[in-house]
Amino acid sequence: MGGLEQLREWVEESSNIVFFGGAGVSTESGIPDFRSVDGLYNQQYDYPPETIISRSFYEKNPEEFYRFYKERMVFTGAKPNAAHVVLAKWEEEGKLCAVVTQNIDGLHQAAGSREVMELHGSIHRNYCSRCRRFYSLEDIMAMDGVPRCECGGIIKPDVVLYEEGLDQGILQKAVSYIRHADMLIIGGTSLVVYPAAGLVNYYQGHRLVIVNKTVTPVDNQADLVVTGKIGEVFSKLMEG
Ligand code: NAD
Predict the structure, then answer these.
(1) Residue 151 belongs to what domain range?
(2) For the purposes of burial, counting CB atoms within 10 Å of the CB of 48, is it exposed (0-12), middle (13-18) or buried (19 or more)?
(3) Global pTM?
(4) Fewer Cβ neighbours under 10 Å: the N or C end of the chain?
(5) Which residues sit with their C-beta closer than 6 Å to ligand 1?
(6) Cα–Cα distance, 79 to 99 (Å, whole number)
(7) In this structure, what are the phi and psi dihedrals at residue 82, rounded to the nearest 5 degrees?
(8) Closest ligand 1 atom number to CA of residue 216
(9) Number of domains composing the chain
């Protein structure tokens, strides 16, 4: 695996790493990504996933939204893999200051990471659209069909649907961390979903590292590209 020694050396020297990741960080935990050949976009549904998980579809057809969401986007048994575990360890050791993620699965926190910017929200937070009461993931998974609050309102997951904007506070925090990072590691993301993908442009240093299974649009801007599965790459980093 090319580039591993260089990455190990840079990690040893760093004290302000930011990690920016996407769905590929959790595929080795058994959660499918969107754009790999076996990802969600290549599975058969009545509508493309991008349509189903849009705000307008959710409002028009909450039954179908929730059928897809509960079957294909929530994986209650998923456990953190080596990538999540190593990132949490680096934070504990004072090497890493933040994880910025497009994922909604909560696996970074499950591994012990504390400073996690969830750009697209989390399946673990759900709120009644009428009275704002909080519900856990377990609460909504235990309800058949469209989950409803005691007040009668529909419960909506706190995830950012297509057509919805990102939380500006979280985005600004992510920008600030990336701007001040001594090393930015980007992993498991196709970097095609905006505005999240534009975050890379805020990095000002000379240690931009990409760890991905396939090529990304920023490989040519990177100082180091490690091609491979991120869980395997991070396990190998720990072996040395
Ligand atoms: P994506 O599906 O567009 O791209 C995934 C990328 O990761 C691809 O480039 C793929 O080659 C790579 N990849 C897959 N497995 C990998 C591995 N083991 N190691 C290294 N690279 C790997 O994902 P995205 O860029 O995150 O964008 C999709 C959107 O879908 C995001 O906004 C995210 O919110 C959402 N999503 C989240 C989850 C989750 O929470 N786990 C799962 C699916 C989709």
Answers:
(1) 123-159
(2) exposed
(3) 0.95
(4) C
(5) 22-24, 26-28, 31, 33-36, 39, 102-105, 120, 188-190, 192-193, 212-214, 229-231
(6) 17
(7) -60, -35
(8) 9
(9) 3
174 and 211 both lie in a single domain:
yes
Residues 6+ apart with CB under 8 A from 185: 17, 18, 19, 20, 209, 210, 211
Catalytic site residue 124?
Answer: no
Residues 179 and 67 in one domain: no
240 residues of the chain, pLDDT tens digit each: 679 999 999 999 999 999 999 999 999 999 998 877 666 666 667 788 889 999 999 999 999 999 999 998 999 999 999 999 999 999 999 999 999 999 999 999 999 999 999 999 999 999 999 999 999 999 999 999 999 999 999 999 999 999 999 999 999 999 999 999 999 999 999 998 877 789 999 999 999 999 999 999 999 999 999 999 999 999 999 886
What CATH number does the domain containing 147 carry? 3.30.1600.10
Cross-strand bridge partners of residue 135? 126
- Which of 120, 124, 180, 206 is the catalytic position? 120
Kindly state whether residues 24 and 62 are assigned to the same domain: no
Report which ligand 1 atom has the smallest distance to the Cα of 160: 34
Atom of ligand 1 nearest to the CA of 103: 40
